[in-house]
Write a structure and sequence with these properties.
Order of helices and strands: HHHHHHHHHHHHHHH
Helix content: over 70%
CATH architecture of the largest domain: Alpha Horseshoe
Number of helices: 15
Strand content: under 5%
Oligomer: single chain
Shape: elongated
Number of strands: 0
CATH superfamily of the largest domain: Tetratricopeptide repeat domain
Largest sheet: none
Amino acid sequence: MKARTIKFFREGFYAVLLVPLLGMLVFSGIACQAGPKGYKGNPEAVQWNETGIKMYQEGTYDKAVLYFDRAIEKDSSNPALWFNKGQTLDAMKRFDKAIEAYDQALQLDPNFADAWSNKGMSNYDLEKFDKALECIDKATAIDSNNATYWSNKGLILLALQKYAEAVPCYEKAASLDSDNPKLWSMKAYSQMKSSRFQDALGSADKAISLDPANPLPWGYKAKALYELRRYDEALVAFDKGLALDPNQPALWYSKGLTLESLKRDSEARKCYDKARALGYQF
């Protein structure tokens, strides 16, 4: 999400390493929403809905909304059609309108867990985090075995800076979808923000074992090792991450901080210079 720069040494490590890396993770799929739903009923509505789903999958969202509206004209009492419209409006970043569509779906089916989850994440995108949490709690109450809901709840709690409360959400999500490396990375992040560095190291290692080509968990592993004062091992992890993506200024800057802790100041300056060259300001 939105990076916040803090220019103190210790807090700077979080701001520069963790927040930009969290942004990478979020936009690669951790903030999850359920996709459009199938529909059975009015034959014309079925046709319009199927066409809307096709347009949605092709990324032509403005056309998809028109087709979902046509389907709704034929059967306004079906929550799936309103849900599909909301999902498409979300993709268009029209979050307020998406929430209105989800509300219509939920009036028709108050136990529509995906609609509660998606409504929660629309509120999250509007930075209405308390409302988002209320919605996602509705989703988990209806279906407590959905990894996406728990992951989304964790993301909302992180936004509220309730880091210790986010940890069990990611623990639950990872237990339900144990082969998802992004969940293990987010678990590592929440554990680090809760000062559980040894646990974070284990979670980062799990994420790496599932997706060794992703620089994100290598950065989290490096941060955990840094906090455990295992500086030489942290440098190895930073180098692994930079070998995978050398254009990450956050990793260069954070590697510089680690080198500075080892009193290797000339090497640290080179890392800071590299971070500046890649556009990071500090």
